[in-house]
Design brief:
With 311 residues, the chain is an alpha/beta fold. 59% of the residues lie in helices and 10% in strands. The termini are far apart.
Length: 311
């Protein structure tokens, strides 16, 4: 029998559903609506149900389908939009989007991911909240620099409150990792590398669970630190990195800057690249990849970091 793929366009209040066989339905994005969706999908026995990441509205749907053993995957909206443009679908409605997602699923066949356990979901929520607090603190500090004197006291009070909230969240993250034998062990391994602190370690545990399970090429591609060629005809453009998991990449970038200063292996590698005439940005990206590959190998072999004798 022909394989069936289902695309779901998720909005705050509605779920627009389309299949690769032309069926379409709409359900409310509520507990009752999700139950109706499951009851409609189950007899179809789909190969895969695919949703776009929509900033959190997709989580209850994904959780409901995964718990009921329906294969489901969440994909980045960007490649779906690129896929739609390649098909000449320039119009955008919820129904069209659902159909496009279904066709994208048939063509690309993204890999379904298992539902995270309760602890993993808790860590993810805390990490997300930490990101939000850091962004708010940065925004308030930027406002403070140009604020009128009448509101500076209020902005400063807000910054202090946000700092306290951030300290509380960091403590909850540390406690959660410390109380999990698996995470505690991995955290100790990762933080044995100079340049990798608690923020980097907890972020990798949460947002890169594949660490230690893939080879060096695949883990680098997953994060997005593999340079891609930009050549056409006789033109040879600069190689660039893009795609992957942007938040993991930004965390890895900050860790690499620290490692260039404090880690003899990364520092030596960085200086060697500069000595060969590489631009600093290119050298930093190469160091990001090297640091990621080192961390991946450490987790895979369960071996703490050691500085080689030749450094």
């Amino acid at each position: 029998m022909e394989e069936l793929f289902i695309g779901i366009d998720v909005a705050k209040d509605t779920l627009e559903v389309a299949t690769t066989r032309g069926k379409r339905r709409s359900f409310p994005n509520s507990e009752e609506g999700r139950s109706q969706l499951e009851a409609w999908i189950r007899p179809l026995d789909p190969t895969l149900v695919v949703l776009e990441a929509t900033g959190g509205y997709e989580f209850p749907v994904v959780e409901h389908l995964a718990i009921t053993a329906i294969p489901v995957a969440v994909v980045n909206p960007r490649p779906v939009r690129d896929f739609a443009r390649a098909l000449g679908k320039l119009a955008k409605t919820d129904t069209i989007d659902a159909s496009t997602i279904a066709q994208f699923a048939l063509a690309v066949r993204p890999e379904p991911r298992p539902l995270k356990d309760v602890q993993a979901q808790q860590l993810e929520a805390l990490i997300t909240r930490r990101k939000q607090l850091v962004e708010m603190i940065t925004a308030e500090k930027n406002r403070l620099g140009t604020a009128k004197q009448w509101v500076k006291e209020d902005i400063q009070a807000t910054i202090e409150w946000l700092d306290q909230s951030l300290e509380k969240i960091n403590k909850e993250i540390a406690d959660l990792i410390r109380n999990s034998p698996l995470w505690r062990e991995k955290d100790a391994l990762l933080r044995s590398v100079k340049g990798v602190g608690p923020v980097t370690s907890s972020s990798l545990l949460c947002d890169l669970p594949e660490l230690g399970t893939l080879n060096r090429q695949k883990i680098a591609a997953l994060v997005g630190v593999v340079p891609f060629n930009r050549d056409s005809g006789k033109v040879r453009g600069r190689r660039e990195i893009w795609g992957g998991r942007s938040y993991v990449r930004s965390i890895l970038y900050m860790a690499t800057l620290s490692a260039i200063q404090s880690n003899p292996v990364i520092r030596s590698f960085y200086q060697r690249l500069l000595g060969k005439g590489k631009r600093p940005k290119v050298a930093i990206v190469a160091c990001m990849r090297k640091l990621l590959v080192i961390l991946n190998a450490m987790v895979r072999t369960n071996t703490a970091f050691q500085v080689p004798s030749w450094v």
